[in-house]
Amino acid sequence: MRFGAFLPTYWDDYGTTPVRVAIEEAASAAEALGYEGVWANDLVVNPAAAERGTTEGGQVIEPLVTLASLVHLVPRLTLGTAVLVLPQRHPVLAAKQAAALHLLSGGRLVLGVGTGWRAAEFALLGADFANRAAITDEAVELMRVLWRGPVAGYQGRFHRLDAARSEPLPPGGGPPVWVAGNAPGGIRRAARYGDGWLPYCMDLAAFQAGVAELRNLTLGRNRPTIANMFYLRIEKPDEPATVRSTSPWVEGRFAGSPGAVAEHLEGYRRAGLEYALCAFESEDLADLLRQIRTFAERVTPLFPDAG
Question: What range does the domain containing 207 cover?
Answer without folding.
Answer: 2-302
